[in-house]
## 1
Amino acid sequence: MRRALVGMLIGWLAQTTAAETLIVSPQGVPLSLVAAVAKAADGDTIELLSGIYTGVLLLDQRRLTLRGPAEGKPAVVFGDPKPGSVSALWTVRGGDITVERIEFRGARASNGSGAGLRQEGGRLNVRNSTFFDNEHGIMSTNDPAAELQIEASVFGLAPKVVGGLYHLLNIGRIGKLSITGSRFQQGFEGHLIKSRARETFIGYNFIHDGQRGGASYEIEIAAGGDATVIGNVIGQGADSQNRVVLAYGTEGGNWPLNRLRVVHNTFINYAWTPAWFLRVFGDRLRSPPGVLAINNLLVGPGVFWMGASGTFEGNRHALRRMLVDADTYAFELPVDSFWRHSGVDPRNIEGSDLAPTAEFQWPVGTQALQPGRTQWSPGAYQR
């Protein structure tokens, strides 16, 4: 036993000391990005200096980190303005890849599926990165073993192409999708977030298309599965292509578990016509979903529980003028609001603890909630 532990320790130390950091620049000094990826070993980090990087990249190492500068001008991966046959600026094909502090812009493909990042398997971790003016910010293909985690990142500026149906996030039938502390804004005709994952977690984000936004669904959980949507600001613009804000099961699916938990979100409809804040297409799924909708704040005209069976408790309707200042994104309830502390206790709902643990923190990231809370207000903010 002792000999085995010593062997494990020696192996761990060897892996730790073997990891290198490779420096790259757009000019190729000391290395080009392509050369660094070819040279990198398992566990290495590639540091991108500021500047504009062009050309496509394939990432298939088992474990690799690519990181932009912490300060100053960003590292920008820029697409060719003329659509080509390549479907992505960077493609992740297996492995465990981390992308941090990198900006992706202008991905175009001749088939309309150009992506800043394309995931074709493996585990992809995206942190503090931005995706602007891409046909799809991140797109993943179908692989039930794949996982995607997005933290503190920004997606926006969908190309304004009529009929393009470009999504800021377009996720195939992967195993797990997790999105936290991120912003999704300025879509056009397509959806802000589209997920077909077996497990989808969307927590503490700012998913807001602006007062005149022209996106379709803000969130589409198209293939059902086990989904949790908690602590988000979800805003639909007056020029939306579809009056549904959160859709579940639109494409049908074959995942073994269909369950939807919608908890402590602030939904906002900027149009004068009613929105369908939540629509569940249960008849398209192999098994009917269990729905728990708890302590959501529904701002503007619309319906919430129509057509969805399940547990609906503590959800409140409000007007924009009932918030602190919706025009400056202060979506919390004022201290004298009669809706404050009117929510139900989310810590034991049908045997599940659905209490939020954080809030979105502008411009990106999250702020932890104080523990020990006994009173709960509807919506994404408890402040």
## 2
Amino acid sequence: MAIINIYLHSEGKTEEAFNFYKSVFGGEFCTFLRYSDMPDQSGFGEVSESEKAKIMHVALPIGNGNTLMGADTPEFMRHEIKPGNNFSISISTDSREETERIFNGLSTDGKVTMPLAKTFWSEYFGMCSDKFGILWMVNFDGK
């Protein structure tokens, strides 16, 4: 069964925001990666030197089974970030098949921004917006 979490997008304020959320909700980050942590030839895209210190992915568990996630959106992926499009819905799936079914359904009549593929952080990952303009991230970590 898929698990849904909110994924916040920022243009350079993710670290500040997540330290604030951590102070409010408590707990510890279960993931905290900068773009400089990416291996060479990651297949993710080109991140400029000025963006390497920014946050590639952060995850803060909140409550029982919920995780608030976020990233600073790199220039090559950037859209105008404003209230209403500064988040994605992140779905973690149980299998490649479920990942494909959900991703293909959501992207029908929408726009694929990152096709499903193996990444250095995941067995199968893709991003799209649906026909209503909602941003989605679909992930199977291989576990």
## 3
Amino acid sequence: RFDPDQGIVRADPAGGQLRSGVADLTTERLENKHVEFFDQRNPGHRRGDELCCIAPITRENFKPGAYRVIGEQTAVRL
């Protein structure tokens, strides 16, 4: 379902969409340049499309929640 021209993974029509109210883009949120960029690049986010992002895997790019998913042993080896 990857659309390489747009850099988007198209949602499965059978499911995977966010419930209303979970991540709605309000006028206030759209004032954030990053949110505005996301909305412009991924207009189908409301139906579950996902914008693909690439970043180096470094300690600085990991949030504490990532370590809960990948485990502390991985955190030490990075």
## 4
Amino acid sequence: MTPWSLGLSEEVNALLLGGSHRRELKSGEQLFAYGSAPNAMFGLLSGSVRVSVTSRSGNEFVLSLLEPGHWFGEVSLFDELPRAYEARAASDSTIAILPAAAFKEIIEKHPEVHLTLTRLICHRLRLALTWIDDAVLMPMSTRLAKHIFVLLQSGSASGTQRVIPLTQEDLASKLGVSRQSVSRLLKLWEKDGVVSVDYGRITVLDMAALERLIQA
């Protein structure tokens, strides 16, 4: 199973990549802005991409931190409405860019691509609904522990030491809470030997303890 099999078959990936061109982004460089025209679909070949929205007061809310293997931006090509979020490179990244015209040609000639992308959108909707349920029903400590666990399982961690390359600000934004709340919990967990916290990364030291926090 390759990184490109995140919900898409090798055949579908080959079709999408075949119609794409490449773009290199430096860390912090914007791929597209909120409200921009839906002119392409994107695949992350290397690096990472930060997907976020910003409130009127200027607070950023991180929707996702994408890693290699993810396609995104297809919803706006289907409904032909402006982008509902912004995307920016979180590290030096290589992006596959599939122009809207090429996208339409592919789904017209290959109905299976249309069906596959529809299923992918449905999967993301289910994830969003799960996130909403968690936000309403779970205590914040459980949500944070669960989110860290999901990141470990989804490949967002690196190496054998279970290191998650996210800042406390990123975690807070993804959970929709304050950085101080996340910092307070992580300090308690660090004292108990569950995690080790450094700038820009969190290392899980005791997986069994993390799983107990989820069940608490």
